[in-house]
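Hi team,

Filling in the usual template for the complex we talked about on Friday. All components are listed, including any nucleic acid strands or ligand strings, so the model treats them as one assembly.

SUBMITTER: L.P.
PURPOSE: interface mapping
COMPONENTS: two
RESIDUES: 505
SEQUENCES:
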Amino acid sequence: MSAASILGKDLTGLEHMTPEQIRLILDTAEPFKEVSERPIKKVPALRGKTIVNLFFEASTRTRISFEFAEKRLSADTVNVSATGSSVSKGETLVDTARNLEAMRIDMVVIRHPSSGAAEFLGRRIASNVINAGDGKHEHPTQALLDLLSIRDKHGKIAGLKVCLVGDVLHSRVARSNLWGLTKLGAEVAVCGPWTLMPRGIEELGVRVFGRVEAAIEWGADVLNVLRLQLERMETGFIPSLREYYRVFGVTPERLERSPKPITIMHPGPMNRGVEIDSRVADGPHSIILDQVTNGVAVRMAVLYLLAGGRAELADAAKRGSE
Amino acid sequence: MPRPKAEDRTILLDARAMSRALQRMAVEITELAGTDDLVLIGIQRRGVELAERIARLIETQEPAAATIPRGALDITLYRDDLETVGPKPVIGETHIPADLSDKHVVIVDDVLYTGRTVRAALDELADFGRPKRISLCVLVDRGGRELPIQADIVGKAVKTAPGERVDVQVVELDGRDQVDVTR
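RESULT (copied from the run log):
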């Protein structure tokens, strides 16, 4: 099989990816880290490709990270956000994408409030589609950068104990992490208020803790602290932010109970003093900013691998190698 | 796995011939570039090992000279054929030892064939600075150029047909030093 088709056409989630595909992305991200350290932070790999960043939801980090990744690969990029575009006039997702495609684009990076939006789009347009977060479903590039950051810090992923802390129910980051971590052999736990736990999550083979202390006693190597998603929170999930901090906030006092240092991660943006204490977020075992740095490298790897992954290119590759 | 028949493969350079070629190349590099501003850049993968070896030979031949800076260049992201060959999944390390401005950079590669790799390497080096001169040093020049590019220093020149293959093996990666031509 040619290398061009290893990832397929789209990246919509980690649930249906193989461990080999995930490792390929992480390994490919390694050399891309160095590109961002060069005096000229740019390589011509995707020269002439046009990429549309279609963001139907607010995003700073992810959108900028994708844009840096695209520009450092020399692709041409266009940003479209829901407000100020024809989306606000009622155009459907497929019509928006088909119109963009009529302008001869090569890839779409999409963030959308509806779960499944990226896959829906991928089945209807010929361009590569990359999911930058769809509803409560998946955020695959975030999970990939988390995996890369864990691997950088611990030198491995298999056998590590990783606990996702907080609002698991509304978190696409949690879902993608869960798939990725279990596929690469980590032990995964979740921890948070019962009201913010999806029903039946134990069936996915993860431990469930009702208290942060229990996760620490379990021997967690990594705590990935999820953002309390205030904008998604309907009333009634938690009594108050102050109580949430008191019970589930990741604080130095709680971490002191662990005999070993625990690596602290957060996908951002942080609510300091709610799900995470500032002394932890800025502490010596926090790799939160490394996650941001790795995000660009991982997204470069995904773009690069998918750029050669379209079916007709794979066919051309086969013809070329004969 | 079927092994290639003996008559399909001829040895172009054995370990001793390769050692002699590298020693001569090291001398020619110092004659061409001196040692003061010299930087050796090997092209991934086997060019990196050859550059390291040549750098050590120069340091032995010229004990008075300072350590020769050496680096590695992976040109995958500068290729002009991503569309036809698809992405190469494994990209090697790129490591440039210093600012290349006003240096004499010698690119080291195992085989010079179409010239496309060297074209990509020149583009990539230009993004790291402005060397005062760039020279090209290859162990085997097998002809068949598709671009107006030539080597300054050649270990062994051989005429080959497009269907033939030139395989360079180095001790560090392959367990032995040898260059074969397979028909």
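MY TAKE: The CA atoms of residues 21 and 179 of chain B lie 12 Å apart. DSSP finds five helices and eight strands in chain B.

Thanks, L.
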